[in-house]
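Hi again,

Forgot to attach this to my earlier email, sorry! This is the prediction with iron/sulfur cluster bound. I've pasted everything inline since the attachment limit keeps bouncing my files.
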Amino acid sequence: MLDSKPLLFPSDFPSLRRRQPRTLQVNLGYRCNQSCVHCHVDAGPRRTESMDAATLDDVIAYLRKGGTEVLDITGGAPELNAVFRPLVVAARALGLQVMDRCNLTILAEPGQHDLAEFLAAHQVEIIASLPCYLEENVDGQRGQGVFASSIRGLQRLNELGYGDGHSGLLLSLVYNPTGPTLPPPQSSLEADYRRELAARFGVRFDRLLTLANMPIRRFGSWLQSKGQFQGYLDLLRAAHREENLEAVMCRDLISIDWQGFVYDCDFNQMLDLPLPADAGHGRLHIRDLDDPRTLAGRRIHTGAHCYGCTAGQGSSCGGALTEAA
Ligand code: SF4
Ligand code: SF4
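Structure tokens for the complex follow:
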């Protein structure tokens, strides 16, 4: 795989500083039942990185220190990891909002027959990837049969009450472009999704989040192989909007990897840009983060990929940051 990291630094992206983190995003590992073209993690069935029980204990100990309001669980397919369910149970017992970044096809994998019921029973918000409401586009990006399996997963979640608007079971869908373009305006695309998924499959959901593809790992390598890497960076940079800087997710979030090391965001995790330890030597580990308030004011490690967060309507784990330009 081609390495895009050397092409992202140095960069003229504006300097950013942290506020006190309120969201902990935990990447449980890079194993996944899919191998999507746009994946910024380079996740897939052959990856073996996976959080162990000792690191899970470190994460739960951190959550017990207070200050965290939202636990955002990602991967890979995080549900494949043995610590996924204990982490959800512990976080919910602490009263945290818990989000699962779910690829939908995992609901039909062997050993996951009760996953949908587990998520519903613990009131886990589901952030589900569905890059189009057309089968051809989804299968082209995510693999043959993924669209049909995803629709069956959504129908199962709907049966449990997800997306009905009153059960409290939140179901968000995630759109990302199929190529090196910016996402269309979130609100109009959401209306299209709502109409098409309801008419064709009887599927309902709460909101659509539009995300830009990040030029790192598998998608960065794909761009390089097509000779489109620099063109995509230029597109992102030309569409930069200063007002998005206030809301980029790294201002209020920390990301940790399957070994417990701390990063500004999942993208910097994939670029191996950890936060330095407090003493200035080595990497900061979640077990050594005694008081998250000490992170406020720290400089965020930025590069050219950060324009992927500020281009156009902006892009974060919560979708667009502002109305479309
Ligand atoms: S994009 Fe998501 S579902 Fe696809 S390979 Fe990456 S982690 Fe798995
Ligand atoms: S990629 Fe986005 S979230 Fe990550 S450091 Fe850059 S601006 Fe922040």
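Residues 32, 34-36, 39, 41, 43-44, 75-77, 103, 129 surround iron/sulfur cluster (ligand 1) (CB under 6 Å). The mean pLDDT is 94.

That should be everything now.

G.
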